[in-house]
Give the backbone structure.
Amino acid sequence: MTKIITKLLDTELLRTEPIIYLDIGARSADVGYWKVFGHNLRYFGFEPDAEECARLNKAASEGRLWEERYYPIALAENRGKRKLWITRMAGNSSFFKPNKEFLDSFAFKQNREVERSEYVECWSLSEWADSCSIKSVDFIKIDVQGAELEVLRGGSDIISTALGLKVEVEFSEIYVGQSLFSDIDPLVRSHGFALFNIMKTIWKRTTVSSETPSQGQLIWGDALYLRTVDSILADANHDPAKQTIALLKLAALADLHVVPDYAIYVLQRASKASVLGGDNRIIFTKLLEDISRQENMSNKTTVFLRTFLRTKFGKAFMWALRRTYFGALIHTREYKWKPRE
């Protein structure tokens, strides 16, 4: 995240515009860097474990600046009761039974050992959104241990309004009958998203010692998708005001997820998009000018400091700083120097 998002959130259009985030599979949820949106953030989580959900709601009630609420339901393709396989590590529980034959080759297989099963209440994403009168969202995180495709299918109308997704994807069947990346990726792309990154997790089989060099096997990862600019500008029901807000939010979300190059690209495309109208294009042009000016000042400051530190005065300053810092450090009780015995 860079200073781009600060400039974006300071625009008149985004100062009062809500940012709706859905956390599907919210165990141990942490608002984290989403706090940057402050009182504009509306954070909704879904966790079928009633006890964990109650804990999250209690924590959320303690002086938050933003709206934060958790629902004790699971999201799936359809409404109804569904069997959930509860594993030793609760966060690995799934609608699909763990694939013991596959898991037996890897360490930590005990984390996915089934302890019991129970039936939980399921809603579709679309049904939940209707019940809350929510017509659109901004970002969705889905981590439901193999049932991600079902969640996506159960909320197509809501998915099509989102500007970003983070979806846990598997490349091998950890759970019997689960969806894989090859099933999920085409569906997400069909909604106007592009894949930006996958935070990959590699497993190594226990057939060799942990010290033996091995590339291991790509098992799962968190896939980051962001909406394409074209999908926003080509909206058949386009409303220039809504498109402008969507593009501003998209740039902010890109910067939030450490893709500042795409954030700038979004602003550049928007500044030249005739469908937005002249007044709206000016907003993006001014933002680009401000960001460029800020970056130039930052670069000049960096160059000045580097040049200064190469001079004899700069070297003397650094010597004095080190002496002061390490001198204070050595004389603290915790770090007091002791001679070798």
Observations:
- Residues 278-310 form the longest helix (33 residues).
- The domain at 4-234 is CATH 3.40.50.150 (Rossmann fold).
